[in-house]
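Project outcomes to date are best conveyed with an example. Our students and postdoctoral researchers have been running inverse folding experiments weekly, and each run begins with a structure described purely in tokens. The record below, which covers 158 residues, was selected by the lab manager from last quarter's runs and is presented without edits.
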């Protein structure tokens, strides 16, 4: 058995990069495996949250202004692709799996990750134990929430 759809929630932290490295190691030998590198943009950090609030917050397009939000998502994805390039180069060698970068808008990082797991048939989550947050501790709040909320296996890495 192997994992076909691995989610690596990506916040640009070194921990998330380690998670990607491990996910690529797991999926590498399998041509039909896919590693989804996904950034969740909390809707509160976007311009005009009121407008997003009216449409249920987890859709990538704001009513009346799809272009702006599409552009934000595109630029986040573009950024991820260049940001992870060296991790991919280092880990890949003869890896056969597919790697896709994605970005979604949601109420919170946790909600976005949980929704992505169920809507994309994710069978494993590999994520950092910590992220960009400044506080030190065992486990970040997003990791803690994901461990509590999803039914698929979750691998947390340093
Ligand atoms: P906190 O946010 O609680 O202050 P932290 O930033 O150190 O603490 P988390 O945010 O829980 O820790 O980050 C743990 C992991 O969760 C990251 O390594 C990354 O895999 C994932 N993650 C965090 N934020 C996002 C996000 N906005 N989008 C996608 N993945 C995320
Ligand atoms: Mg964080």
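After processing, the design step wrote out the following sequence:
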């Amino acid at each position: 058995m192997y994992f076909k759809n691995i989610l690596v929630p990506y916040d640009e932290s070194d921990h998330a990069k380690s998670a990607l490295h491990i996910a690529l190691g797991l999926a590498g030998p399998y041509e039909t495996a896919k590693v989804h590198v996904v950034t969740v943009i909390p809707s509160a950090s976007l311009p005009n949250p009121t407008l997003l609030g009216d449409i249920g917050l987890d859709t990538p397009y704001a009513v009346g202004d799809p272009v702006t939000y599409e552009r934000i998502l595109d630029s986040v994805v573009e950024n991820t692709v260049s940001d992870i390039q060296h991790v991919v180069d280092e880990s890949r060698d003869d890896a056969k799996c597919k790697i896709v970068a994605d970005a979604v808008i949601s109420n919170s990082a946790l909600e976005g990750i949980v929704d992505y797991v169920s809507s994309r048939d994710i069978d494993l989550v590999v994520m950092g134990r910590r992220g960009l947050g400044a506080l030190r501790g065992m486990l970040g709040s997003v990791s803690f929430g994901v461990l509590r909320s999803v039914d698929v296996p979750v691998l947390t890495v340093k």
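The pocket of magnesium ion (ligand 2) is lined by residues 131-133, 140, 142 (CB under 6 Å). The chain has one domain: 5-150. The training component of this project remains on track.
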